Amino acid sequence: MLLKPIDVVPADQVGPVHFIAAGGSGMSGIARLYAELGIKTSGSDQSDSTALRGLARVGVTTYVGHEASQVGDAKTVVISSAIRANNVELVEARKRGLRIWHRSAALAALMKGKRGVSVAGTHGKTTTTAMTAVMLSEAGRDPSYVIGGPLSTTGASSAIGTGDAFVVEADESDASFLQYPTEIAVITNVGADHLVNWGTPEAYADGFRAFATRPAVQHVVINVDDPGSRALAEALVGEARNIIRYGEAADADVRITDVTPQRSGVEATITYGDESGRIALQVPGNHNLANAAAAYAVGRVLGLTHDEAVDALGRFEGTLRRFQLITDTAGIRVYDDYAHHPTEIRAALTAARRATSAGNEATGLSGRLIACFQPHLYSRTLDFADEFGEVMTLADIAVINDICGAREDPVPGVTGELVVDAARKHGQENLVYVKEKYDLPAALDEIAEPGDLIITLGCGDVTIVGPLLADLLKQRPEAK
């Protein structure tokens, strides 16, 4: 289902407010900000979580499970696209005639009166949003922000600042990105995803064009290395007020050149107009250089100097679940990454391959790249099984888990074995299928050798694997 933008009142006029599924990655950061503004805030979720407990610590009244009574004295109830119509709290809110907002409307209300920076794209939104927020923070601009994943340094995914910029991760899956009051629109790439909502790749791409041409948009920062966003950039000529192209392409306005991989990061030259210099990131991969170039462009629009932007980006340490180092034990590095679409996985594995090679040069060990992938959603697995299989060939060894269905009901015949079969068809001979996720740590421990780099991939609960594997690696003689 695609959402249509609605008129919203400022956040200080909506309370008390109740969030259904408050522990979700897209909801918890917004709920936190309402509470921090002094608005009476409550929230429920199906199960307990770190995010839900974090909300309780900042004054949100939280509930595990859903009951009609938990709506309390709320005037506004906030939901996500995943909330079903028969949710008892949503039914209660409708029965009482309360204001019901999608989370994008609740976020838009917070952005009123600020310079909105909305970061959209099929991939890379979270990291680019986080880089932009950290860059502005480190440069002393104290932005407000809402990111789809917590920063690794603070563990928080949102903040209310005193500065005039409000940076948000703008979700395209349900057209939420059309809701936000956006002055600077960032587009990291345009592929094809969420076709259950959009119907066709063409309609999906048209959504990004609508995002870039919203009335309030004054600047479009767009990646010209990606074919989809390059085509959009060309189509926007004459429509958008100011287009800033970024990437490694020769015609990029913010251009990345002379890339040098490091064991745990990457360096390059960044050029904008007649200003040029080296940028050193603490996170690896050319895709992160692209993300940094987008953030740099936003910083320049908002008044940062070249040196301020470059220096601040060099202090970015990543977000949780975006090429996050879990452990470096017994000569084996274990990373965790949220990548769940074939293009995202390709970028993560390409960065992991460079990190593997750089690590081998530093240690003298001849290590392998081991990918541990948990497919997410039955519909996405069915749509992209062949592409998932093909991208698994980038690893030396591919360990495939069964599907994390999340909000979807199982589909007969659709399992992780579809990816295994596709990978085998594309020539990946080193395959291991592990149906139960709790069996993955032991399976990886049995496979791993000193010098290897292991990366867990997926936006589901595969994130539990890295820490459990780390405990097993600590028991090896090499770790003692």
DSSP strand tally: 21
Helical content stands at 25-40%
How much strand content do the residues show?
15-25%
Largest beta sheet: strand ordering: 8-7-9-6-10-11-12-13-14-15
- Gap between N and C termini: 54 Å
Specify Rg, calculated over alpha carbons: 22 Å
Number of helices: 15
List the helices and strands and how they pair.
Elements: E1 17-20, H1 25-36, E2 41-45, H2 50-57, E3 61-64, E4 76-79, H3 88-95, E5 99-102, H4 103-111, E6 115-120, H5 125-138, E7 144-146, E8 158-159, E9 165-169, E10 184-187, H6 195-198, H7 201-212, E11 219-223, H8 227-236, E12 243-247, E13 254-261, E14 266-272, E15 275-281, H9 286-301, H10 306-313, E16 324-329, E17 332-337, H11 342-363, E18 369-373, H12 378-391, E19 397-401, H13 417-425, E20 431-434, H14 440-447, E21 453-457, H15 465-473
Parallel strand pairs: 1-2, 1-4, 2-3, 4-5, 6-9, 6-10, 7-9, 10-11, 11-12, 12-13, 17-21, 18-19, 18-21, 19-20
Antiparallel strand pairs: 7-8, 13-14, 14-15, 16-17
Helix pairs in contact: 1-4, 5-9, 5-10, 7-8, 9-10, 11-12, 12-13, 14-15
Give a nutshell description of this structure:
This protein is an alpha/beta fold and 480 residues long. Helices cover 34% and strands 22% of the residues. The protein has helices spanning 25-36, 50-57, 88-95, 103-111, 125-138, 195-198, 201-212, 227-236, 286-301, 306-313, 342-363, 378-391, 417-425, 440-447, 465-473; strands at 17-20, 41-45, 61-64, 76-79, 99-102, 115-120, 144-146, 158-159, 165-169, 184-187, 219-223, 243-247, 254-261, 266-272, 275-281, 324-329, 332-337, 369-373, 397-401, 431-434, 453-457.
